[in-house]
Design goal:
Radius of gyration: 17 Å
Distance between the termini: 37 Å
Strand content: 15-25%
Largest sheet: 6 strands, mixed
Order of helices and strands: HHEEHHEHHEEHEEHE
Number of strands: 8
Family: Belongs to the ComF/GntX family.
Strand order of the largest sheet: 1-2-8-7-3-4
CATH class: Alpha Beta
Helix content: 25-40%
Protein name: Phosphoribosyltransferase
Number of domains: 1
Shape: globular
């Protein structure tokens, strides 16, 4: 019935009769050297990795998931994230136990999207790993604006002092991996890392689904 009202189409390219086509699945596949280190304009103080560029099917899937209610696209994005985390562990850049902390989002945005999509993707990606926990330890103050369209300096001003800790306790001794959907200037990552460090946490890296 839903497919009759809302025609089924690929979230990456719009191809009919499928939610995620084989061509877009191939485009979302990680290259052998991914996740790659990226250098945002604002240095978070820890290495920043991205699964790929914010372009093509990856970009369209993220936009559709966040802004068009396509929660079904969490699954292919989660598979990509799961492989990225696995490679960081295999390369020795992370060690278990790991606490995955989703980057903060504004509460109204999460409610509009039916929940925080980054937390949902991170939870799907790590669901079967016994030594990885997803902890929503950060939140954004209500006064923070949507960062879309802001330049680097404006993003820093918008984020400064507006990332807060939740009451969720971080596990003692675990490495922290901050996960976000898109890394642009790095302003959100730096403020998030600062808040976690101030709480005594050991943030090892930032991992983003895409780098803009």
């Amino acid at each position: 019935m839903l497919d009759l009202v809302l025609p089924l189409e690929c979230g990456g390219c719009g191809a009919p009769s499928t939610r995620w086509c084989a061509a877009c699945a191939r485009e979302l596949t990680l290259s052998v050297d991914a996740p790659r280190v990226v250098t945002p304009r604002v240095d978070p103080g820890v290495p920043v990795f991205a699964l790929g560029r914010y372009a093509g099917a990856r970009r369209r899937a993220i936009v559709a998931m966040k802004d068009r209610g396509r929660s079904d696209l969490s699954a292919p994005l989660a598979r990509s994230l799961a492989l990225g985390v696995h490679r960081l562990l295999r390369w020795g850049l992370l060690e278990v136990p790991v606490a995955v902390v989703p980057a903060p989002t504004r509460g109204w945005a999460a409610r509009r999207r039916g929940g925080d999509p980054v937390t949902r993707i991170a939870s799907l990606a790590t669901a079967h790993h016994p030594d990885i926990r997803v902890i929503a330890a950060l939140r954004m103050k209500a006064l923070a604006r949507d960062s879309a369209g802001l330049d680097s300096a404006a993003r820093e001003r918008n984020i400064a002092g507006r990332v807060l800790r939740t009451r969720r306790r971080l596990p003692t001794g675990a490495e922290i991996l901050l996960v976000d959907d898109i890394v642009t200037t790095g302003a959100t990552a730096r403020e998030s890392v600062r808040i976690l460090h101030d709480a005594g946490a050991r943030v090892t890296a930032v991992l983003a689904l895409a780098a803009a």
